[in-house]
Specification:
The structure is a single chain. By secondary structure, the protein is α+β, with helices and mostly antiparallel strands. It folds into three domains: about 45 residues, no CATH class; about 110 residues, Uridine Diphospho-n-acetylenolpyruvylglucosamine Reductase, domain 3 (2-Layer Sandwich); about 90 residues, CO dehydrogenase flavoprotein, C-terminal domain (Enolase-like, domain 1). It is about 30% helix and about 30% strand. The strands form three sheets. The protein has a five-stranded antiparallel sheet with strand order 4-5-8-6-7, sandwiched between helices. It has a four-stranded antiparallel sheet with strand order 9-10-11-12, sandwiched between helices. Strands 1-3-2 form a three-stranded parallel sheet, with no helix packed on it. A hairpin with a 6-residue loop joins strand 11 and strand 12. The longest helix is centred in the last third of the chain and has 20 residues. The termini are far apart. The model has no long low-confidence stretch (mean pLDDT about 95). Bound molecules: flavin-adenine dinucleotide.
């Protein structure tokens, strides 16, 4: 558990950003992960007053505020209609309903956690992040970057007509995923594999690639390029096998 000297609610992004430049200060979102930190912080910067808890849409994109709780993603009719329920599927097994009422998409994406269902899912879709003050970049670029002192403002899901399916394997209903896979199809296949146990990795393949059986060359090559690791939960070989099954199932579900 951590301690903090002061709790602040900035009224503008500029104010939040300035406070976040001090090494001892921390942004607090749902506090579900942060609460496991130890040590003492200076100021806790709560983003709750910045209006980042809404999901808006335009003709071309969904704009999801960083402070939107996971439960809101799970229940959002239009987001789930657009993603073929992939968003609901990636969120619904995370801990429990009360937990998902507090944990936010911003905390999940910012953390770039190796086990993240959410990062895996959004990476396979056409997603950008909006940072203050750096502006927009693709989620893939953001994931590759080391965390800095910007503020994650919005997660932007582009309406590019992708069909998407999410699959993960867990030993227990609400435990961490042993492997997570998200497959999207549009002009290309976009395939993200997470919980390897490292953070999600994105592969882009031509839409002509066949991913229907373990014998398919495209699938074998994709799995060969993916780095799977061994930890106390599962071996690298087992994770590779699970990923193969999940990708085949997810891809098949998009063809019906
Ligand atoms: C027991 C447990 C089990 C979990 N299981 C899963 C799981 O199975 N699958 C899964 O995908 N996830 C899982 N998670 C992660 C969870 O879903 C959230 O991602 C996590 O709790 C962080 O969200 P939060 O809103 O609580 O962020 P916080 O804990 O408040 O913050 C997390 C970090 O992000 C920073 N941060 C937060 N928001 C911003 C922002 N807008 N800009 C800049 N920095 C920011 C904070 O400073 C902090 O460093 C689990 C977490 C816990 C604690």
């Amino acid at each position: 558990m951590y301690t903090a000297r002061e709790y602040v609610l900035p009224k503008t992004l500029e104010e939040a950003y300035q406070l976040n430049q001090k090494k001892q200060n921390r942004i607090i979102a749902g506090n579900m992960w942060l609460r496991f930190s130890s040590g003492s912080f200076g100021q806790l910067i709560d983003l709750s007053d910045l209006g980042l808890n809404t999901i808006r849409q335009t003709e071309t994109e969904f704009i999801i505020g960083a402070m939107v709780p996971l439960r809101e993603l799970e229940k959002h009719p239009e987001l789930n209609a657009y993603t073929g329920n992939a968003i609901r599927d990636c969120v619904q097994d995370i801990v429990g309903t009360q937990f998902r009422n507090s944990a936010t998409i911003g905390g999940s994406i910012w953390g770039r956690f190796g086990f993240s269902d959410i990062l895996t899912c959004f990476l396979a879709m056409d997603t950008e992040v909006e940072l203050f003050p750096s502006g927009r970049m693709t989620l893939a670029d953001f994931t590759a970057q080391k965390p800095d002192n910007d503020i994650l403002v919005n997660i932007i899901l582009k309406k590019t007509g992708l069909k998407t399916a999410y699959r993960a394997f867990r030993y227990t209903a609400t435990g961490f995923p042993v492997i997570s896979c998200c497959v999207s199809k549009g002009d290309f296949w976009r395939i993200a594999i997470g919980a390897r146990p490292a953070k999600a990795m994105l592969h882009i393949l031509p839409d002509t690639a066949v991913l229907s059986s373990a014998e398919d060359t495209a699938l074998k090559e994709l799995l060969d390029k993916t780095i799977f690791g061994t930890n106390s939960t599962a071996s690298a070989d087992y994770r590779r096998h699970l990923a193969q099954v999940m990708i085949i199932r997810a891809a098949a579900s998009l063809e019906v």
